[in-house]
Amino acid sequence: MNQPLLVYATTAVLVLIPAFYLALVLLSPPPITTRPSEKTYRSKSSPKKPSPLPSLADKGSVDLSVIIPAYNETRRLPSMLETTLAHLNSPAIKSSRTHELLIIDDGSKDGTSALALELAIQNPHSEIRVVTLEKNLGKGGTVRHGMLHARGHRLLMVDADGASRFEDLELLWKAMDELAPTNEPSVVVGSRAHLVKTEAVVKRSPLRNILMYGLHTILRIVGVGHIRDTQCGFKLFTRRAAQQIFPAQHLATWIFDVELLLLAKQLGIPVAEVPVEWHEVAGSKLNVVKDSLQMLRDLLVLRGNQLVGRWKVTPQ
């Protein structure tokens, strides 16, 4: 290599590296913050006066916490909650497992919190806690908030649309019993991969299919190709896994599932994938163009920050 070319190459590297780092800093989301009112909840026992939320760092006090992120869900939440409570309060389950539900209202404008509180009062046999975020944070930030304030020895995140069959929790629970018999750090994720060639997927909206196939290709590149379905909103964590994963989460947007699985991989936490039943429910808030571009950007930001060491996680 002649001297002028070497000078040009060195100059390009010296310019591009700082430019890349600066772009990464500018594109990275700010730290997720929590306002004082968001550290409280309302329930059937205290519908008007907020009570302080516990911390994930505390010792677990119920068998299962169900985290339900909700944004403008007055239409879909009642039926989802009915199915959920019917299962959790069935004689076989109720006699062997205590539970709580945390409905996290992500700054809704349609009265989701008020409806959730009304449903909590109507179902006195279950502990339903309603948390209201002052401003819309994003699904990932909403799930994170619920996880950080749950009491369960095991913690389940589930979408408010009721697309996943809640009874399939027992499939995840059984897999968790095998993976973590003493609740050591572990994750079990529901998977719709087995439905790819069935009517449930073939006849579902083009929006979700476009997102699914494009995302799968990118995920193989960023390092979670070993999980066939990263985006199913039905995931079970042991408390010890949640204590390591969720405090380290940075992304509050749709792609947060990928970050959780990457964190689990980096922390050496085993992840099992279990087929579950799923059906499309009208009312999706995804925008195929906007959210695809946002997912791609966030994936690049995530991997970039991890590669340069800005977002570090240390196995315990």
Q: Can you characterise this structure?
A:
- With 316 residues, this protein is of the alpha/beta class.
- It contains 11 helices and 9 strands.
- A 7-stranded mixed beta sheet has the order 5-4-3-6-8-7-9, with helices on both faces.
- Helix 1 crosses helix 11 and helix 8 (206-222) runs parallel beside helix 11.
- It is globular, with a radius of gyration of 21 Å.
What topology does this entry show?
Layout: H1 3-27, E1 40-43, E2 46-52, E3 62-70, H2 77-88, H3 91-94, E4 99-105, H4 112-122, E5 127-132, H5 139-148, E6 152-158, H6 169-179, E7 187-191, H7 199-202, H8 206-222, E8 234-238, H9 239-245, H10 256-267, E9 271-275, H11 288-308
Parallel strand pairs: 3-4, 3-6, 4-5, 7-9
Antiparallel strand pairs: 1-2, 6-8, 7-8
Helix pairs in contact: 1-11, 8-11
Number of strand segments: 9
Portion in helices: 40-55%
Low-confidence stretches: none
Looking across the biggest beta sheet, what order are the strands in? 5-4-3-6-8-7-9
Structural class designation: alpha/beta
What's the SSE pattern?
HEEEHHEHEHEHEHHEHHEH
Main attributes of the structure:
single chain; alpha/beta; 7-stranded mixed beta sheet; 11 helices; 42% helix; globular
Q: What's this model, at a glance?
A:
The chain has 316 residues and is of the alpha/beta class. Helices cover 42% and strands 17% of the residues.
